[in-house]
């Protein structure tokens, strides 16, 4: 492991910050790759470097573990026939580029002062060769004095540890990360570690680089990503790595490669290699070689010691003991000393062992092939045994002169550095090699090349060099990049210096588009922890453009086998500003795989996961929301949004809580925001969740375990609050009272239309009621006025149910914008406390009559249309039945939930079966049941009642923690399906419901017992004579299919009764699927689902005002008690109770 100087910047970026495309993509980070990255960055190109290893361990390639010997290949080698003509025929072809490499790597011989013992030994040995041998100290890319290198990085002096080949650097090694790569980083290159490139794909003039991300440990599954190289893709992954990539690319349909045709302690000893004996001055360049001194790294000395002892025992000869007994005794003593006291003890066998590295030529005998997507190396052919024997003979002569024994472990040859694999062609065509003289990959056997695909490492070298190859690899890369840049008219700025590079330095050039790193703002700080999540499911593509149900889409996707797989690594961020309560978010990177969306996995970059955000579209629910920007290989930009919704339906149910926390509803939209897919993905099972929990680990920044513990406790707390809500709801109010206070204090209703006028009108019994007027948006509109009649909502509510400011589009706003003048009545039960405590629904019929009289005077030429809800609708029916208002005063009616007949839903029917519940409450707290406590203090009895009402039986989906909601459910029944309310509406229930008098409640329960509307003396108003007063009034009945206040049978009975009495043309009934009692008025989507139907009925009434059918059907009346029942003759398909056997709509 390399230990860098402390004053050194971090070069790599998280893979999540990688852009979809770059001008240049460099694969690898060794000598050739470093050159390509540096020079292209200095040419102003956007560069990405992909390295399979980690920073500090792998970034820098072979430069991290070699000895740093900078030796140029001899001209005789370069001029051999294996090289391309452009190189071998030009004596100066490489000189300029060797010089460039030397300028960056700054090779320096070991200083003459204080030479290591092994250097002096090799110098003495070289004297045996006389003029035939040449001893010299080799140039090393190592600093022997403290200073800054050519790239501006501070370097330390070499500590003579001899560990350079193990990767442990003392800060003196001028490796690629501190030279070419840091230079590329300064000039804007982006470096990404943990990216194993698998294969390449040509796409027009660009190249798609497919890689697997190993940046994080403990991932769930393999994430295959891709990045596009628009102009150049440089392969610098080494002789093996580059060849493997090209071979695998061929397997994936890429036709640019072929099989390989080339070679592929106390007393510090000094650097690994310091000097050499040069024996290359021979007639045949292939017979020349050099002998370099070596050094056994300290960590492997014990292992090597055992191997050498075993070799000595195997080669021991008894006669040698008789011939030289003293020498053998000294050897045994040295061996025992090393065994007992360690390999580094002075005088031990290991300290008396010399190591030599021979740099020679071999026979180009290794072939790589791909089997089962894995590389296979095969050694075939002749081994040049005569050359090896000649080298061994020379070594024995050297050893014999020092009275030592030569030990050669095993007989196999070992290569310190493989060369070739994608060799340069000697004749400029693909028939003799893989690349041309510039490293461009041939398309076939001819001279045509992939202009932007360039090999720039040891893989292009067509033969063995006879010296350490780093200088030649670097020079060839310098040459390729320079000549390719000249072809493309690129200008390389090689003169500008970087200045001093320190730990706090920043790149001088940035190619950022401004879209990356958006999470790095002052509101969030990283916790230093991340985890990986895997989700699988099905998606339907294309899905309906709007209103698609994700679970239905999932079923469609399952039928068509449209699998969606998401693997995300989520770095956890903690919010520190801009919020009054703890909140976490995650920054997501990973892959989204779906063949219906893209033929290859799509990469998610800088996606966001918001943890436990209150669901503004729901009530008392919290969400984990995903937003993932995607881009497929076809270049299409998509956005995947996902939602985990956790609501109170999961309370006290482990299976439901598990389902909520592991299920994500997803939608996919294109760049225009149009929905192109929908579905559901899930964590597959408990085992997958267990693997996910094991993926928590630290990011590269220091992180304390406490940060993870706090996050996990926060996560568990949110789930516990939901699970145990029925038990702790009174102690933990999750209704967000601060939000309600904000509504009151800041007036979020300011954007809604306010009343144009407020009139106080007097009824015939001298009671004052309020009539709010909202003018039409169009002053010249000919649309009829509309009168809105609410149900019982209590004294002086802040808003009418028809004008809620926190509803996206309320009913008055809807009709006023369409040219209707709107009148909203506040009946007597909502103004004066004394009057409200004494009035009944029957009394309120006079309020409607007074309002119609006022509207009639204001709108002489137009009859008003009436929209009535609940008891407002009952009061309207009473006014018509008693003749208080006439049928010809009204254009038409929409009656929501109830009109004349009344059939309570199950729980309301139980409560209404006896007046004891009302009497008990009156005894406890008086004749008024409050819902809003903003102007009164909540007594102990009311707090106890709150707790009891939280246990009121409602369906699981409608569980909530709002005391106001519980109180409305107790007083009137469950008023809505909670899915149809958003958070703003639900959090402000006490702004449009304040309470009710027990006298009104008692009158309502009496009417339910009777089954129809009653006057104050409990006489039925639904008589034969009274019913005739409704003749000619068109009515639209609306009921929610899930109404828990009045059964949908209520409006069905009225609908059947009236159309049998007066004909079928005047009446319509609309059963709103999935809605309850009040949400057809105040629901978040009521505009889309309900209002249009009312508007259509208004238009229908205008068209048919003069063509109403007033002839009755054949009716036979019989009296039962105080109300009438209609028996129908000659009406097929109907039973005797006037209820349709079929479906009415």
From TrEMBL:
Q: Which organism is it from?
A: Aspergillus mulundensis
Which protein are we looking at? Cholesterol oxidase
Q: Where are the transmembrane segments?
A: 703-728
Under the GO molecular function aspect, what terms does this record hold? cholesterol oxidase activity; flavin adenine dinucleotide binding; steroid Delta-isomerase activity
Location of the Glucose-methanol-choline oxidoreductase C-terminal domain: 414-477
Q: Which family does it belong to?
A: Belongs to the GMC oxidoreductase family.
Query: What Gene3D superfamilies does the annotation carry?
Result: alpha/beta hydrolase, FAD/NAD(P)-binding domain
**Pfam annotation, one family:** GMC_oxred_N
Give the residue range of the signal peptide.
none
**Domain Glucose-methanol-choline oxidoreductase N-terminal, which positions?**
57-249
């Amino acid at each position: 492991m390399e230990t860098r100087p402390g004053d050194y910047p971090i070069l790599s970026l998280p893979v999540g910050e990688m852009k979809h495309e770059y001008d240049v993509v460099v694969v690898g980070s060794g000598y050739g790759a470093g050159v390509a990255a540096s020079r292209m960055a200095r040419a102003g190109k956007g560069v990405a470097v992909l390295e399979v290893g980690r920073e500090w361990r792998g970034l820098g390639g072979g430069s991290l573990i070699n000895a740093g010997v900078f030796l140029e290949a001899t001209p005789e080698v370069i001029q051999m026939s294996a090289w391309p003509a452009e190189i071998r025929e030009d004596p100066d072809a490489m000189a300029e580029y060797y010089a460039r490499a030397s300028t960056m790597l700054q090779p320096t011989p070991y200083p003459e002062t204080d030479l290591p013992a092994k250097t002096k030994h090799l110098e003495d040995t070289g004297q045996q060769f006389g003029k035939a041998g040449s001893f010299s100290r080799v140039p090393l890319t190592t600093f022997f004095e403290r200073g800054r290198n050519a790239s501006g990085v501070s370097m330390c002096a070499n500590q003579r540890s001899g560990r350079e080949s193990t990767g442990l650097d003392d800060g003196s090694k001028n490796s690629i990360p501190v030279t070419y790569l840091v230079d590329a980083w300064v000039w804007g290159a982006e470096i990404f570690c943990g990216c194993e490139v698998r294969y390449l794909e040509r796409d027009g003039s660009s190249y798609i680089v497919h890689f697997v991300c190993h940046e994080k440990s403990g991932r769930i599954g393999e994430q295959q990503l891709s990045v596009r190289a628009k102009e150049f893709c440089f392969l610098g992954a080494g002789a093996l790595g580059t060849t493997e990539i090209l071979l695998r690319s061929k397997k994936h349909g890429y036709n640019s490669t072929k099989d390989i045709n080339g070679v592929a302690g106390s007393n510090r000893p000094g650097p690994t290699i310091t000097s050499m004996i040069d024996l290359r001055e021979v007639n045949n360049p292939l017979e020349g070689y050099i002998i370099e001194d070596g050094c056994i790294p300290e960590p492997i000395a014990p292992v090597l010691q055992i191997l050498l002892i075993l070799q000595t025992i195997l080669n021991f000869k008894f006669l040698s003991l008789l011939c030289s007994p003293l020498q053998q005794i000294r050897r045994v003593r040295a061996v025992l000393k090393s065994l007992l006291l360690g390999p580094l003890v002075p005088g031990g066998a290991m300290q008396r062992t010399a190591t030599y590295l021979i740099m020679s030529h071999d026979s180009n005998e290794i072939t790589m092939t791909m089997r089962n997507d894995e590389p296979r190396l095969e050694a075939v052919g002749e081994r040049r045994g005569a050359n090896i024997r000649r080298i061994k003979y020379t070594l024995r002569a050297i050893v014999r002169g020092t009275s030592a024994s030569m030990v050669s472990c095993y007989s196999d040859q070992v290569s310190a550095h493989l060369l070739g694999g994608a060799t340069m062609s000697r004749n400029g065509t693909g028939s003799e090699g893989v690349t041309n003289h510039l490293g461009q990959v041939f398309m076939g056997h001819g001279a045509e090349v992939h202009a932007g695909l360039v090999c720039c490492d040891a893989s292009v070298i067509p033969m063995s060099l006879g010296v350490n190859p780093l200088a030649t690899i670097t020079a060839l890369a310098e040459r390729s990049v320079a000549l390719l840049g000249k072809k493309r008219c690129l200008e390389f700025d090689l003169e500008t210096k970087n200045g001093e590079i320190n730990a706090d330095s920043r790149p001088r050039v940035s190619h950022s588009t401004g879209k990356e790193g958006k999470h790095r703002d002052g509101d969030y700080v990283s916790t230093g922890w991340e985890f990986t999540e895997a989700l699988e499911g099905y998606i339907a593509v294309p899905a309906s453009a709007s209103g698609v149900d994700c679970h239905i889409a999932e079923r469609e996707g399952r039928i068509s086998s449209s699998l969606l797989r998401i693997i995300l690594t989520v770095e956890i961020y903690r919010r520190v500003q801009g919020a009054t309560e703890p909140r976490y978010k995650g920054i997501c990177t990973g892959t989204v795989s779906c063949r219906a969306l893209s033929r290859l996995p799509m990469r998610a970059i800088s996606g966001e996961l918001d943890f436990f955000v209150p669901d503004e579209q729901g009530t008392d629910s919290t969400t984990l929301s995903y937003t993932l920007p995607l881009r497929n290989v076809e270049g299409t930009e998509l956005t995947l949004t996902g939602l985990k919704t956790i609501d109170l339906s999961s309370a006290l149910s482990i299976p439901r809580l598990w389902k909520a926390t592991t299920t994500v509803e997803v939608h996919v939209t294109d760049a225009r925001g149009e929905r192109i897919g929908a579905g559901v993905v899930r964590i597959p099972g408990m085992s997958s969740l267990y693997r996910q929990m094991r993926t928590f680990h630290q990011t590269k920044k220091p992180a304390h375990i406490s940060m993870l513990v706090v996050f996990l406790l926060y996560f568990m707390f949110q789930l516990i609050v939901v699970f145990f809500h029925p038990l702790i709801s009174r102690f933990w109010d999750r209704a967000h009272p601060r939000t309600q206070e904000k509504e009151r204090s800041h007036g979020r209703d300011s954007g809604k239309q306010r009343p144009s006028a407020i009139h106080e009108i007097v009824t015939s019994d001298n009671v004052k009621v309020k009539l709010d007027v909202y003018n039409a948006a169009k002053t010249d509109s000919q649309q009829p006025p509309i009168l809105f009649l609410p149900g019982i909502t209590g004294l002086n509510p802040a808003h009418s149910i028809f004008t809620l400011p926190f509803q996206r589009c309320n009913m008055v706003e809807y009709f006023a914008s369409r040219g209707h003048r709107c009148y909203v009545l506040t009946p007597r039960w909502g103004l004066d406390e004394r009057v409200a405590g004494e009035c009944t629904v029957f009394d309120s019929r006079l309020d409607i009559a007074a309002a119609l009289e006022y509207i009639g005077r204001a709108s002489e030429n137009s009859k008003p249309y009436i929209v009535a809800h609940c008891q407002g609708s009952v009061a309207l029916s009473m006014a018509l039945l008693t003749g208080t208002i006439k049928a010809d005063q009204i254009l038409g009616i929409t009656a929501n939930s109830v009109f004349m007949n009344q059939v309570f839903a199950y729980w309301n029917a139980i409560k209404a079966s006896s007046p004891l519940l009302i009497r008990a409450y009156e005894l406890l707290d008086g004749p008024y049941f409050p819902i809003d406590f903003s102007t009164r203090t909540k007594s102990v009895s009311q707090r106890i009642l709150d707790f009891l009402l939280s246990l009121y039986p409602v369906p699981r989906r409608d569980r909530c923690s709002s005391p106001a909601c519980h109180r409305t459910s107790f007083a009137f029944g469950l008023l809505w399906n909670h899915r149809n309310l958003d958070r703003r509406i639900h959090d402000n229930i006490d702004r449009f419901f304040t309470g009710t008098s027990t006298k009104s409640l008692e009158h309502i329960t009496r009417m339910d017992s009777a089954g129809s509307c009653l006057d104050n003396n409990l006489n039925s108003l639904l008589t034969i004579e009274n019913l005739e007063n409704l003749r000619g009034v068109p009515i639209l009945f609306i009921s929610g299919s899930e109404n828990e206040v009045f059964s949908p049978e209520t409006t069905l009975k009225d609908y059947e009764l009236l159309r049998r009495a007066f004909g079928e043309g005047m009446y319509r009934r609309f059963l709103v699927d999935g809605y309850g009692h009040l949400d057809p008025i105040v629901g978040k989507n009521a505009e889309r689902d309900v209002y249009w139907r009312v508007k259509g009925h208004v238009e229908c009434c205008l068209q048919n005002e003069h063509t109403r059918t007033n002839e009755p059907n054949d009716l036979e009346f019989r009296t039962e008690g105080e109300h009438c029942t209609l028996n129908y003759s000659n009406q097929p398909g109907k039973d005797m109770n006037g209820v349709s056997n079929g479906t009415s709509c």
